[in-house]
Amino acid sequence: MHIGFITSEYPHQKTTHAAGIATSIKNLAIALVKQDVKVSVYVYHQKEDAVYKDEGVDIHLIKHRHYKFFSFYKYRKHVQRYIKEEVKKCNIDLLEAPDWTGITAFMHFRVPLVIRFHGSDAYFCKLENRKQKFKNFLFEKLALKNANAYIAPTTYAGDVTRKIFGLNPEKIKTIHYGLELSKFVNKNPEHYNEKTILYIGTLIRKKGVLELTKIFNTIVDQDPDVKLILIGNDAPDIKTGSESTYKLMRTYFSDEAKKSVDYLGKVPYSKVKSYIEQAHVCVFPSFAETLGMVTIEAMALQKPVVNTNIDWALELIDNGINGYLVHPKATEAYSLKILELLNNKSLCTKIGKEAYNKVGSTFNIDKQAKTNITYYKRVIETF
């Protein structure tokens, strides 16, 4: 079997961007290779045309091109032509693409196309109660309607996306993202920087970072020795027009809290693991996710996590057993759960161990790869 992934991001030193989608695709691609599946990844919107091989995966960079008229259409057709040649030349059996921006709108292939719900613009607009541009909705709908099957990382993401676009529920399969557990081994989970809270993710309103400022203000009032570390890209704020969400956050932090916040900006993915290991508690008060890769990475490293209680998170964490789930707007309750963990070392150890077990049973990439392969075969057979 030969699977081709179409994506705008993939973790490689030559690519221009890599975030949660990229990590999940790479985890799966490498796991598929280990199962004797050939994998090619086609990364569009890149600075150059090039081909590399990395960990058994063929990576094709497709240079971004500008056109005087109808650039959105002509570039898609350029990407389609390139991949069509690859399908024919390399005997690709199935293609997979993300729902974000509807890159496969106007594309047609002679092999089945599966779209994975990494999170469309329409999905996030729905969760944020934000109006979507009609053009973006149209592209995403065209792409989804042209697909032969769908994969959702959580049942919740699948249900919401199905309702938005009017998709056939029988064509949607829930398959969680996965981790290669051998790369997430915390040899000394009892060693960490005490009273250190870690947030990893883009600094953007939908991730609950403005609520996090209020949560941290309450925590500092109770214990001025607690530290907050923020890791991730800064983003503009749509609602206020601020060019920097972090600057906006600074206006929300109390004077005492500001002294205890360390914003590190974007950190190379290779170094993120060590920051998680050093943290006492990890927090992800997001309003909008499909699953949240960094949450399961923190759990795999035996960290107690306080997450959101919005429905997708119910598929990640069993509240009170392998983590805590609290609504981001319940800032008082959220801060109390964090303080409970900061003040109870044995509880942190217990929650951390249960979190590791949860990831091992539910998010093991080797198991998930086999599930993906079975589903791919079914789609190919019925094409």
**Helical region count?**
13
How far from one another are the termini? Answer: 15 Å
Percentage beta strand: 15-25%
**What about the largest sheet?**
8 strands, mixed
Number of strands: 14
Which assembly state applies to the chains in this document? single chain
Q: Rg, please?
A: 21 Å
Which stretches are poorly predicted, pLDDT < 50 over at least 5 residues?
Answer: none
N-to-C order of helices and strands: EHEEEHEEHHEHEEHEHHEHEHEEHHH
Percent of residues in helical segments?
40-55%
Strand order of the largest sheet: 3-4-2-1-5-6-7-8
Gross morphology is globular
| Average pLDDT over all residues | 95
SS-based structural class?
A: alpha/beta
Notable features of this structure?
alpha/beta; eight-stranded mixed beta sheet; six-stranded parallel beta sheet
Structure explained in plain terms:
With 383 residues, the chain is an alpha/beta fold. Helices cover 41% and strands 17% of the residues. The protein has helices at 20-34, 71-90, 121-128, 134-146, 155-165, 209-222, 245-252, 255-258, 269-278, 293-300, 331-342, 345-362, 365-381, and strands at 2-7, 38-46, 50-54, 57-63, 94-98, 113-116, 149-152, 172-174, 196-200, 227-231, 261-263, 281-284, 305-307, 324-325. An eight-stranded mixed beta sheet has the order 3-4-2-1-5-6-7-8, with helices on both faces. A six-stranded parallel beta sheet has the order 11-10-9-12-13-14, with helices on both faces. α6 packs parallel to α7 (245-252) and α6 packs across α11 (331-342). It is globular and about 65 Å long. The two termini are 15 Å apart. The model has no long low-confidence stretch (mean pLDDT 95).
